[in-house]
Design a protein that fits this description.
This protein has about 400 residues and is of the alpha+beta class. The strands form 2 sheets. Strands 1, 2, 3, 4, 5, 6, 9, 10, 11 and 12 form a 10-stranded mixed sheet that branches. It has a two-stranded antiparallel ribbon with strand order 7-8. It has helices at about 5-10, 15-35, 40-55, 60-70, 75-80, 90-105, 165-170, 170-175, 190-200, 220-230, 255-260, 335-340, 345-355, 365-395; strands at about 110-120, 130, 135-150, 155-165, 210, 230-235, 240-245, 250-255, 270-275, 280-295, 305-315, 320-330. It is built from 14 helices and 12 strands. Helix 2 runs antiparallel to helix 14 (about 365-395), helix 3 (about 40-55) packs across helix 4 (about 60-70) and helix 3 packs across helix 14 (about 365-395).
């Protein structure tokens, strides 16, 4: 069962019950994966790959997984990522549906973020010298854009895309060598996010909000969410201009200027949810900029929505972050702060998936290899989230009392 024991053994649930929950969950996800593979041999390789991701070894290399699976070498394990024929997007959809069954809630937040995968050489799909927040610098890496589903029941990844820099999309030979599907054109990270939001809407995923950092606070993302009737808290940079209109108090200028001119009494100290070190407190300010009728964006839609600016200030100094917001009229600052606070869940998920499930231990260079590897890791992660949810929902054991003599 490996080093995940401590994560899923929950107070009030016996070790036996947790082991059974683990075994039954693993059987279930393997059964859901089975229709993706035309051959039993390939399905068996996929199952042992999943077992390897969930196992004890800290490095999830092909050799380590092969040893754990009792294979003579990593070839069978690597074939599942490269040579076999199966659809990684179909697995992504299996992961999404499984996650929603266990975590689905109407007030959930879809969080979009990217992470870097440090890589040597030039051959791995999308690799190049680019900035990655995970390393905090420009370095040779791949960038993956992800969507995580976050509800009160837990969180799991539900979508992913490999970002291809222009140096790749302008080089047909390089694309062909990494088996990138024909017709794949350059797409910005926000464009990849829009595609993910559209897939979530097409799948009727229940969620009320989208949260993301300043990479994604752009018009295209805002427009698709407004048309879908979804609220958002999206990061923007300090030079992003805001202005109020209608009957709202006058606010005009860049986000940084507006924060600078704010009366000290305009800040409120609020928690954005629980972090690893307790409540994550910051100072916050919120400006309602305009009220708009929903039918301006969607024919026949009803209700009033408020466009706003949310500002976060670090307690220890003047470190500011700015967010463009869209929410049903009457939404409180506490609600918006809570939505923004859901972003920590995807950062936590990246860390767990890399440290424990081998998210960044992919040894294949191809487009298919990356999407297959990442989708299998997403399935392992969703399984752990489902186990935690089910264990927490289990009735507590009755305390044993000594019979009276």
């Amino acid at each position: 069962m490996g080093h995940h024991d401590e994560e899923v053994v929950v107070t009030g649930v016996s070790v036996e019950a947790t082991l059974e929950l683990w075994a039954s969950s693993l059987r279930e996800v393997k059964a859901r994966m089975r229709p993706l593979f035309s051959q039993a041999r390939v399905a068996a390789s996929a199952n042992s790959f999943l077992d390897g991701l969930l196992g004890d070894e800290r490095r999830k290399t092909g050799w380590m997984r092969a040893e754990a699976a009792g294979d003579a070498g990593p070839w069978r394990q690597q074939a599942i990522l490269g040579r076999g024929r199966w659809d990684a997007d179909a697995l992504r959809d299996v992961v999404r549906d499984y996650a929603l069954e266990h975590l689905g809630a109407d007030d959930a937040v879809l969080v979009i973020d990217e992470t870097g995968f440090l890589k040597q050489g030039k051959a791995s799909g999308g690799v190049g010298r680019q900035y990655t927040g995970s390393a905090g610098k420009v370095t040779n890496c791949q960038i993956g854009v992800f969507a995580a589903y976050v509800s009160s029941k837990g969180h799991a990844f539900v979508d992913r895309a490999l970002y291809l820099p222009r140096s790749w999309t302008a080089d047909p030979e390089r694309l062909a060598a990494a088996h990138v599907p024909e017709g794949t054109a350059f797409a910005t990270k926000p464009a990849l996010a829009v595609k993910m939001i559209e897939r979530a809407l097409a799948a009727c995923m229940p969620f009320a909000w989208v949260a993301a950092d300043a990479v994604y606070g752009v018009g295209d993302v805002e427009q698709v969410l407004r048309r879908a009737g979804k609220g958002y808290v999206l990061g923007v940079k300090g030079d992003h201009r805001f202005g109020s209109w209608g009957d709202k108090p006058v606010v005009a200028g860049t986000a940084a200027q507006i924060a600078n001119d704010l009366d000290p009494a305009g800040w409120q100290r609020l928690p954005a949810g629980q972090g690893t070190k307790g409540e994550r407190l910051h100072d916050w300010a919120y400006f309602e900029l305009a009220d708009l009728e929903a039918d301006e964006y969607v024919d026949g839609a009803t209700g009033t929505w408020t466009r706003g600016l949310l500002i976060r200030r670090h307690l220890a100094g003047d470190d500011l972050a700015f967010f463009t917001t869209w929410c049903p009229a009457g939404t409180t600052i506490e609600t918006l702060v809570g939505v923004e606070g859901h972003r920590w869940a995807i950062e936590d998920s990246f860390e767990t998936a890399k440290n424990e499930l081998g998210l960044d231990h992919n040894e294949t260079r191809s487009w298919h290899g990356w999407h297959r590897h990442v989708s299998l890791v997403m399935l392992a992660f969703a399984m752990l989230a489902a186990i935690r949810t089910r264990a927490n929902a289990a009735p507590p054991k009755r305390a044993w009392t000594r019979p009276r003599a």
